[in-house]
Amino acid sequence: MNEPAYCVLVAEDEPLVTMLLEDLLGSVGYRVLIATRVEEALAMLTEHPVDAAILDIRLGPNSSFPVADECQRREIPFLFSSGHGAEALPARFQNARLLLKPYHMKAVLDALNLLLTFRGTGPKRPTG
Question: CA of 115: how far to CAs of 16, 19, 112, in Å?
Fold first, then answer.
């Protein structure tokens, strides 16, 4: 029997990037939740057993920092994504992982696998 796949929350408001990430992560067996707004992402953290999160720094007119704060509170590993550098991060997130856009798909998978490896009990393998 296969272990359940990790559930990854992707908070991203750019439809093309969202589709790319959903296809990539789904193709290697991750269960993917998509949120395009901060409120949606926060609700998904409450309603689903999220194992990791990829958070675009800007979600429309808002930042994803409240989502990152909630991930920290729940001990859910996350990384930020941005077309800008680390200067867009407030001091409390200066040590957070940052994935720069445009994405290299291998870099996305490597960064996510690294997050999940350090989650606590060790990595589950994506199904598929």
Answer: 24, 21, 5
